[in-house]
Amino acid sequence: MTARTSAAVRIWRSRQPRTRADHAYVVYLLAMVALVLVVPVIRAIAMTLTSPYGITVLTSPSAPDATMLAVAGLWAGMLLLGRVRGPALRPPFLAHALAASDMSRMGGFRGPLLRGGLIVVSLVTAVAAAIGASLAVSGQTTLGSATLFAVAGVCVGVVAVVAWLAGQALPRTAAVLAPVLFTIAALTTQVSALHPYTPWGWVSLAYPSAAPGFASLLPLVALTLAAIAAVPTLMDLLSHSGLIAQSTRWEAASSRVAGMELSDAVSIYGAVPRVGRQWAAISSTTHRTWVFLRRDAVGAARTPIRLAVGVLAMMAAGGLLALSLNPEMPNGVLGAAASVILFAALGPLTDGIRHAASVAADLPLYGIGDGSLIAHHSLFPLTLTVVVLVASSLIVALLIGHSALAAGVAALVLGLMTLAARVSGAMKGPLPPALLAPVPTPVGDLGAAARLAWALDGLLLTAAAGASVTLIAASPFPALIVGVTIGGLVLWRWRHRR
Q1: How far apart are CA 164 and CA 168, in angstroms?
Q2: Torsion over CA: 61, 67, 73, 75 (sign)
């Protein structure tokens, strides 16, 4: 490192809060959050895993295959995550100073890599240990088998961290490798003879059973050691421009999240259209409905990966919704999960709605009213929702022997409510100044909770909608109440748009 760079880094670090009081406050804050939020969540997860239904799921014959898919999905997801936000990341100024200096990438960015890796490995290991402990407590496996699976979880976490780094160092390769990896894993789950020869198969062979398979850990440990050995090479491949770009975007997104502007934070990581620029988005027809349908369809197709992920997520939401209607399943939880997935899937399809909402309070530049503009831009996501969501829910309902009519009605109702929640979010606007005021209560200031609820109102409402539609066959009133609430919020924000 040059003398100038070293001095700049020392100045930057000297301006950061490093007092003991700051550290003590952070520790106290983390302890309070863990006591109030983390402990109840851990208790709920433990009770769910050790319940009769949880044990039935964990001991089902398809549990090892599901583990294979989960591991492959984790590794593929970490490859894709590294393309947009890698583990070796520092603030923009420090990233520029260290990347432009003579210091090696390992020396300058080892700290954030280790901190991020520790979090990932801890989470994966905790999941594996929770599964093994639940089966051991219920008498379905031995303590040795549960411990073996926890060790396999450590290996899976380490490989996931290296995949995360690989996505940051080789973004183009990761974009191709991730879907190929997951596709191969999905195919090999159907051929049991290939399980001993695939990395995800080694994890499934270590799944808790009556007889611990210590031999399955040997190739997994070898893969982990090889991944660790590749870390210095991957660190050296990190480019200066890539580090600065990721650091700048992450800082911008973090500042918007701190200001409860979640949609703006997500838009920072939005895909840039690179294909289809020569496609005509506006046709010569005078039929307004077809004009808007074609315009939104072409606009979504110009980011094909983003569109494909949205459609696949919508299909998964439809299948999950059909499963949630089964009386033997945890209806509310699966319904809420399906609605949250659907809410995320509608993101790539509702760019036109967000554009219409942004110009709704301005002059009618397009020659049509504000309400008509939003209604026409809602046609494309509504069409895809009806076709994809309802069709996937009907197919899954027929496969599991459930009522196709109930699944279709539930999917249609949920699709309409989720789309309305998206419209409401598009017209939300900035954080109201009234929410910045404290909300004193006997249990403390709830101002932060009010701001968090405002920022996540779309997710909360759609989760309630998903839980309510699972009861639509028994009683339509919960779904009606949630639908009226979402509709009322849309009307209120429409009247107060600016």
Answers
A1: 7
A2: negative
